[in-house]
Amino acid sequence: MQRVKPRILLSWSSGKDSAWALHVLRQSNEWDIVGLVTTVNTAFGRVSMHGVREDLLEQQAQAAGLPLWKVPIPYPCPNEVYESAMRDLIRRAKDDGITHFAFGDIFLQDVRDYRERQLAGTGITPVFPLWGTDTRMLAQQMIAGGLRAVLTCVDSRQIPASLIAHEFDIMLLQQLPPSADPCGENGEYHTFCYDGPMLACSIPVQTGEVVERDGFVYVDVLALFQR
Question: Which of 21, 49, 123, 193 lies 20 to 30 Å (CA to CA) from residue 60?
């Protein structure tokens, strides 16, 4: 008799870590992955923090072969508004028979603790497929494994602003200052993943306007070919 796999959602930022987490979950063959959860800033129509346009997010999900579970949030977004939106998401997930929720966090214990507190008592168990992996080794593994991404957001207080729009590659790792985490786990940078083993096809993109906001530098990533 075939074992019924637990139904799991994946927190999806559009970046490399969540993309690699999807790859790891699929390789384990332990889960029925039923959707990608993304918070979308309704004021700008973009992925929160990463600044990626919704149309690219939708192309990603299509390439990953999974439905998007969008969580709309305002800008600015008070914490209580965010938590209310996530409670609504959890109720929907439970109604759909989902028992687990995966995250691409690697080592930030306070972030993991927060996620565990938010899910405590809900009947949905958090899963951290990348947790505890050495980040330099992980970054190199992603690159060697065929993941391709572009830097969409840079914290110019931590790494040079000139790295905006840089490819996530070995050259980038060499240019990061010693104080920076190779995977940007401390918020040094965020990415958009446009190719890799978790996607059925590559998403051709080009970079556009660069803007600075509150110490963060963003580049507009555009689909090279409009659908």
Answer: 123
Q: Structure tokens of 79?
A: 């914490």
76-120 pLDDT, tens digit per residue, is 899 999 999 999 999 999 999 999 999 999 999 999 999 999 999
Residue 226 pLDDT greater than 90, yes or no = no
DSSP-H helix ranges across 107-156: 109-119, 135-144
**Among the listed residues 194, 124, 181, the one whose alpha carbon sits nearest the alpha carbon of residue 155:** 181
Q: Give CA–CA dist 40/72, Å, rounded.
A: 5
pLDDT band (50, 70, 90) for residue 43: confident
Task: Let me know: does 156 contact 212? Beta carbons within 8 Å.
Answer: yes
> Side-chain half-sphere of 46: how many Cα atoms within 13 Å?
17
Looking at residue 180, the DSSP 8-state letter turns out to be S
Amino acid in position 222: L
- Cβ distance 188 to 166 under 8 Å? no
Residue 201, Cβ neighbours under 10 Å: how many?
Answer: 10
Kindly tell me the sign of the dihedral angle through the C-alpha atoms of 85, 87, 90, 94.
negative
Query: In the chain, where does DSSP find H-type helix?
Result: 16-28, 54-64, 79-95, 109-119, 135-144, 170-175
Domains of the chain listed by start with CATH number: 7-223 (3.40.50.620)
- With left for phi above 0 and alpha for psi between -120 and 50, is residue 186 left, alpha or beta? alpha
